Amino acid sequence: MIEVAYRFPAGVDAAKQAQIIAVGQTSGSWGARFAERDRALRAHLARVIDVRSEADGSSIARVGFPRENVEGDLATLLTMIFGKYSLAGPARVVGLDLPEDYGTAAKFGVAGLRRLTGVNDRPLFMGIFKPALGLTAADHADLLREVAAAGLDLIKDDEILGDLPDCPTLARVEACRRVIDERRAAHDREIVYAVNLTGPVTRMAGRARALIDAGANALLLNVLVYGYPLLEALAADPAVDVPIFAHPALAGAVGGATDGSSAFGIDYAVLLGTLMRFGGADAVLYPAHYGSLPFARETEFRIRDALRRPLGVRPAAMPVPSAGIHPGVVGRAWCDYGDDVVLNAGSGIFDHPDGPGAGVQAFLAAWERVRAGEPLRADAVPPGPLHTALVKWGGEEAVG
Fold first, then answer.
1. Cα dist. 272→142, 171, 255, 303, 347 in Å?
2. First CA to last CA across the chain, in angstroms?
3. What average pLDDT does range 275-301 have in this prediction?
4. Number of C-beta neighbours around residue 238 at 10 A
5. CA distances from 57 to 10, 19, 53, 127, 296 (A)
6. Which domains occur in the chain, in start order?
């Protein structure tokens, strides 16, 4: 059974609306013409499990759908559970429980990313090429060489950067692959570069294979823009044998208010957590609540938990809190996530006053201080990359 929780605002008859969903999103009604097939038709009906009232006057209704109504993918699932009913008025999907074997499993997840990076005992640190637009492939390679030498674990394109004439995607991969190989030869450790996969959707699978053949060791995908079915197709493709990083671009148009208070849409824990994980994403980006985008702490943690909670043999997906991450928040992030997290920084690395390499060093130094229980305050840190970063972006007391 597939169980979905819907929230209805005060004043809406939640029991009535849940029953409308249970019938209207499945078999629908039938008359005497199909009376002899009553049992078969009823087998496709969903059922209302329960309805409960919340303190704010809203109601949560749980509806159970037969798995047999869908094809095991996310497209038919979403059509069934919200489809045309999403146009019916105020209602929000706030929970989704799927069978453990539903959908597509990630090839890498948390454990696979650790194997690729060779880092097993701390959070992973990821950079975002900055500036986002206007650089050449050679510029990307030069920046990658600098941050790789400083010890960065992963890097990605900005989600805005497509296959542009002044910086073609294939050229970026080829230029950066040489740096990746240099890093492996020198340190027996590969820096992971998630190249942004873009283009006409009919060509995306072929383009992904071509980039991997050219040396790409990870992909970045704007999943909400291209659709969950493309994520599933890439994750299921044996030739796409690299991690897929799911970007949340456009998620706000579906999820609404980031504190979860929207009366419409799909809760972020479902949108960026459950659906991404069951679509095969290896890692998922979303805003950190102490970052530069307004995102509620509780919303962030619901996504985190949906990505990492035990689900049989299905790999846990790596959470990637982003947007405004800098060395001064490393302690807070570690307290929130533990070791299994990717801390993703653009300006926090590439806008360091002493250059991107110093930005990476500042993150690594921040982690060493956090692990030792020492504060991340500029007046408590000796001169160097971390001190400079804390002066620029601020810091915090010791955690733990």
1. 33, 31, 9, 6, 24
2. 41
3. 95
4. 6
5. 5, 19, 7, 44, 21
6. 2-97 (3.30.70.150), 109-393 (3.20.20.110)
CB contact at 8 A, 144 and 276: no
Phi, psi of 389 (to 5 degrees): -65, -40
| pLDDT score of 400 more than 70 | no
Q: Which amino acid is present at 74?
A: L
SS3 content of the chain, % helix, strand, coil (to 5): 45, 15, 40
CA distance 344 to 171: 24
The helix (H) or strand (E) run that includes residue 353 is none
Sheet strands (E) in 310-372: 318-322, 342-345
The reply to whether omega before 383 is within 30° of 0 (cis) is no
Where does 2-121 have alpha helices with state H? 14-24, 38-42, 74-81, 109-117
pLDDT tens-digit series, residues 352-399: 999 999 999 999 999 999 999 999 999 999 999 999 999 999 998 877
Q: Which residue has the tokens 């294979």?
A: 209
**In angstroms, what is the C-alpha Rg of the chain?**
23
Residue type, 143: L
CA distance 331 to 368: 10
Mean local confidence (pLDDT), 103-107 = 98
Q: Supply angle C-alpha 197, 323, 201, rounded to 5.
A: 20
Classify residue 53 as exposed, middle or buried by CB count within 10 Å of its CB (0-12, 13-18, 19+): exposed
Residue 198 is encoded by which pair of tokens? 């873009």
Positions annotated as catalytic residues are: 84
